[in-house]
């Protein structure tokens, strides 16, 4: 799902 | 991590050090918009506090702590230490006209209607428009100290470098973040005329002056 979308960016 | 994003983050880091250097050497925050700096605190606090419950990497953690701490420190310098040099009469951008629409956008455009995801979208939208009070102040005064223009150039380059990063990640990892990309394009577009003046004056060694 989208909730784990790339959150590794600042 | 790719070079575009690394240099983007380093450019963002550099912008903070340039701003701190400017405040310390000129012992003033003249020409700096308090409202923009306050918006950045809101942006970082609302997006980077996820370090309290999520671990991405040491780099991610250290950078988030640094940006939250440094942006708060800058507010302290402007509001306390160098308060006499802060002229609120030229920092007139109505921030409520910026926060309102961003909040509305965040309620509409988010990846999941949860508190943290809506807050993340709000932070992304706010960051894209946070530079407006600073640009309005620049427009109003018509000129800026050279070091302030270097601060703005580094700050503008940060998210501009995220654009090739997003393109790279799309082709290499097949992932894309439409909310971050849209906001990042708007954020970079806002710097367009600043960069034009910056590269045609300051880089030629002249003083930064907006056409009257």
TrEMBL record, chain B:
Transmembrane segment boundaries: 55-77, 97-113, 119-138, 150-167, 179-199
UniProtKB keywords: Endoplasmic reticulum, ER-Golgi transport, Membrane, Protein transport, Receptor, Transmembrane, Transmembrane helix, Transport
Membrane topology: Multi-pass membrane protein
A single cellular component GO annotation: endoplasmic reticulum membrane
Annotated Pfam families: ER_lumen_recept (PF00810)
Main localization (coarse): endoplasmic reticulum
UniProt-listed GO biological process terms: protein retention in ER lumen; protein transport; vesicle-mediated transport
Localization per record: Endoplasmic reticulum membrane
rRNA-binding as UniProt keyword: no
Superkingdom: Eukaryota
Keyword Protein transport: yes
Annotated GO MF terms: ER retention sequence binding
Protein family membership: Belongs to the ERD2 family.
Protein's name according to its UniProt entry: ER lumen protein-retaining receptor
Source organism of this protein record: Phanerochaete carnosa (strain HHB-10118-sp)
